[in-house]
Amino acid sequence: MPRTPSAPAETPEAPERLVRTFCRPNCFGGCPIYAHVRDGKVVKTSFAPLPDPQYNRVCLRGLSQPQQMYSERRLLHPKKRVGERGSGQWEEISWDEAIATVVERFQAVRDEHGPQAIAYTEGSGNYGTLTSSHFGATSRFFAALDATTLSNTLDVAQAHGLTQVFGALPNNDPADLVNAETIFIVGSNMTEAQIHTWHFVADAKERGAKVIVVDPVFTVTASKADQWVRIRPGSDTAMFLAMTHVVLAEGLQDDAYLHDSTVAPLLVRADDGQFLRRHHLTGEAPVTRVDPMTGQEVCDEPYLVWSADEDRLVELAPGVRAAMAGVHEVAGVTVRPALDLLRETVEEWTPEHAQEITTIPAGTLRDMARRYATARPASIYHCMGIDHWDNGHLNTLAESALACVTGNVGKPGAALGFKWYYAENYDWMAWMMPGGHTGRTIFTDDMFSVARDGTIRGEPDAIKALYVAGCNPLGAYTDRNVWLDEVLPSLDFIVTVDIYNSDTVEHSDLVLPAAHWFERQDMQFANNHPFVIWGDKAVEPLGKSKPDIEILRLLAGPLGIKEYFPDSDDELLEISVNKPWAERIGFSIERLKREGAVKVWYQDPESPNVCLGYEGTFPTPSGRAEFYNPNPRPRVQSTTSMRYDPAIERLPRWSPPIEAWPGSEASKTYPLVFFQEHTRWRVHTQYAEVPLLRELDPGPTVKINPRDAAARGIAAGDDVEIFNDRGHVVVRAVLSEALPEGMLSMPKGWLAHQHKAGAPSELTHMVLNPASVNQSYFDVAVDVRVWEGQE
Fold it and tell me: Model confidence over 551-575: pLDDT tens digits?
């Protein structure tokens, strides 16, 4: 039997206490673990069981937590800058002085520019509810302050493509993969980056499922698959369009699903791109309602379709069999079913044409399409490999259309992407809008704009103070040198709250030491397993460090928002809980503390969760999967999205990467595509200096195809400089046939000082797509040469 969360245990060496807690970085794991405590110190960790043993897990990063906790990198005292930013000159100060300084500087900015000139970074370095700056207590604090959220525009393109079609994310529980007959893994090296999900794929293989990995690189995951398909980097959209072409051309589509659950039969007007409704015939004002998902006013009239039985225009209703092909004239306007438009879109995307773009043989593309359409249910597991491109949202937009025409969505064994249980559990109004307060949200492109010319979205504006928590912008965001040379100098005051020293800490004005995860209690909603989990406090905070929630409480009083931060953690946590959700699953804070984990479920508490479209309906204006979206919108309103063109976003389409693509202007000077791959050793820049992990992964490297290396006189083990017009980084060369020619792959997450020169984020850019407004980490052109410099 598993021990209870804090059950004592004896060892021959010393009395030992086990405390149930959890890991909290952005690896999607959310792993419950035991902290083994002796003499007031965490000496090791081990996995803590979940109620369903198939989700039990731990990894090397979780096992290395004691070395993280007691690392020399720990920040133990508040400190203020006494030299130039980045000079490393600091003075330790008291908490009283630190809090007074933050309050004074924030009030000065608020008095001169208004509260929205104070911003905080929304990061993913910690997913405890009382800690996170991403829907956690930090977000609540700055909402109460009417300040500005600086959203990081990271890893969101793939989600935007999916939500354009389905209204939300159609990602089944990871355990549901075992129900699939076919699994495509696209843009994900699961055995490295999503360690805990891989075993569900292995279980599916044992049941007889076929696993097909699509990746430019022969990864560890590819080595375990039934088939590896090499694709040109950045061309996934073309692959999905070609597969859809094959399905429709060969009559392999799921007509019943298309008719009943997608917009396939809805008639689209040629003049304005809208679905045909009753008011288009009567000339009267449309009947409208407010869409609760978007807050937008939408038409609330029946859709008009062409009856396949009566050969005339009728209202769509149960029992009506609508035609999904044909061109008609209605009230002087040409109309066609949406499926016709999709057919027209993919008509040019023959496998032979797609082969020219993707390098995947035409015969392989045909086989992939036939398999996905017929060996069902079929899942496409993608992660961020298809996200980090200027065309990232187009990748999943095309993927979604393919899923629609084959009926591989909203069913057991038919998933798209990865599941991350999160927002279903929060009471957004009570938690994120305390007292009705909510500041505005800006984005990284807005931050660059206000730093350069004092405007946001074309209007005069100001951001003068920045509160950094739960993230390391200088290590994780793109275009590092612009941050250093333009953005940070435009700020009057930068305060960073962190457990460890980081690149961003080094360029701050004031640093506040946060307690480690095991030095405070908290609960976590954000996991890729279906459990809300509890973490007890294992030991006292090291040095003078404090839990983030205590820091916020110290600031809340003098800043006038104390009423939103009660002294009781339990009372604060209770505010965050979605009450109808809690009632449905029997959740309470008391139960969570008692059991350590409470299961989240949708259709059936005993079955893997199909989280969207289970009954064939979706949270879209039409209630259907909208592979044709008549009213597409950019993901957010930002400086970049002002260039958004909705007319080109209604259907899937091909657009090449803007930089890392043959024939681009950048590629003429810098011919290599630059990847930053996830590994099992780090989560972004977390764990970069853990001694145990450094033994296994000693330092920064880059993988180079031997022919690219030979052409540049590079030998294995050489120090090489990767460079472009924006910056450079120096790392050690590893020659690898796993990579295609024309590509470099650098394991990500090293801190700047761990390189002999430069940093990988110097090479990246802040050119965002107007639709997704997403940082394109892989859409980067570089070259590489032997380094001749000095360390």
Answer: 999 999 999 999 999 999 999 999 9
**Would you give the distance in Å from CA 15 to the centre of its chain?**
42
Which two structure tokens, joined as six digits, stand for 280? 């288009």
pLDDT tens by residue, 510-535 = 999 999 999 999 999 878 899 999 99
Tens of pLDDT along 612-628? 999 999 999 999 999 99
Give the pTM. Answer: 0.95
- Average pLDDT on 41-66 reads 94
CA separation, residue 364 to residues 188, 225, 369, 683 (Å)? 20, 15, 9, 34
Spatial separation of the C-alpha atoms in residues 499 and 68, rounded to whole Å = 10
- Per-residue pLDDT band for 284 (boundaries 50, 70, 90) equals confident
Please give the distance of CA 559 from its chain centroid, rounded to a whole number: 32
DSSP characters over 120-161: EEE--S---TTT-SSSSHHHHHHHHTT-EEEE---S-HHHHH
Tokens of 33: 């673990």
Residues with Cβ within 8 Å of 379's Cβ and at least 6 positions away in sequence, in order, are: 172, 176, 177, 180, 182, 183, 184, 408, 413, 414, 415, 416
The count of other CB atoms within 10 Å of the CB of residue 580 is: 7
The answer to whether 8 and 15 are in contact (CB under 8 A) is yes
Task: Name the residue among 230, 235, 233 with its Cα closest to residue 213.
Answer: 230
CA pair distance 494, 492, nearest whole angstrom: 7
Strands 465-469 and 459-460: unpaired
Structure tokens at 191: 């055995």
pLDDT, one tens digit per residue, over 711-727 is 999 999 999 999 999 99
How many Cβ atoms are within 10 Å of 543's Cβ, its own excluded?
11
Helices (H), 229-278: 236-249, 255-261
